[in-house]
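[job 0412] stage=fold_complex status=start
inputs:
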Amino acid sequence: MAIRGVGEGTRHDMRRIAFLLIVFFIFSFFSLSTALAQVQVRMRVILASNAGQDIDPSLRDVYKDLGSLFSFTSYRLVREESLNLSLNQPARITGRTGKAFLEVTLVGQHKNVAELRLRVVREGTEILNTQVRLFSRRTVLVGGPRYGEGVVIYALYGNF
Amino acid sequence: MKDSCSSVSKLLEKYFDQESSDKERLLVEGHLQDCPACRDALRSMEELRTLIKVPVEEAVQKEDFPWVWQKIEREIPLQEKLTWWQSVRSWLDISPLFKKKVWIPAVATVVVLLFITAQIIFRKTPSYPDASVVEYIESETNNVMVYDLEKEKVTVIWLFEGSEKEPATT
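[job 0412] stage=fold_complex status=done
writing structure:
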């Protein structure tokens, strides 16, 4: 009976395939991990005050909640954007002068839940530091920092 | 029908070199029994081979093969070297692999590994149905209140601040 050995060419091919497979899986793993670790959060910055009676039309969906919670007569949308948060990558919503900002950092992700660290910093001083679990289809309002005759309310809505 | 010398002579060289098929071999051997001319031709071939073989073997014995190999080794580095990029490209070129069947187990491996990896990556991690929204909260400068509206699915974190400052804006 003849015994045929594995040729050098075949061994070389197998090494190449193994290498390419390893590269493929490492790339796929990191790509998927990065893609899956992203969370989209809808962020709105609202200026609430008792100066006037105007309600921003774009805030109609949250006005019911705001009206039942607060006694302000005016709600104005200052800024709205969709934040694509990556794990441990802070996103800053900076003020006009750059002296105050809200920093949002995704620190964990689970099914329908994003763990966010929120920091409000004014003139280098951290005035609020909190960590919240933002559930999908749920709103977290961070309010209180004063501006003019009113206050600022940051509204974060889980959209994932 | 007896095979003619002309047709067998074409096969005689193959027969001599043991490259003929079984059918051809039987044909030639059957013919050789009855044909002295072809037997002579075959004998001539054997004599010629002996004539050539002896001096070649003598020359081989005299030849210094280690010296020949050293000469070959000296020539090898003189051949044109590929650049590192050409080497990488030729190494990563998988097109020759598709001419072979080695890709079948490779594809099977990829499918199996993808299936296993997908199970791990897309496994649902447990959510927090009963967990509170606020994990921790701290402020060294102001009082803070947390208020949950379960029905409206709204959580409020309120910072009681007295001073007049700016809002975040574009």
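[job 0412] summary: Chain A touches chain B through 65 residues (CB under 8 Å).
[job 0412] exit 0
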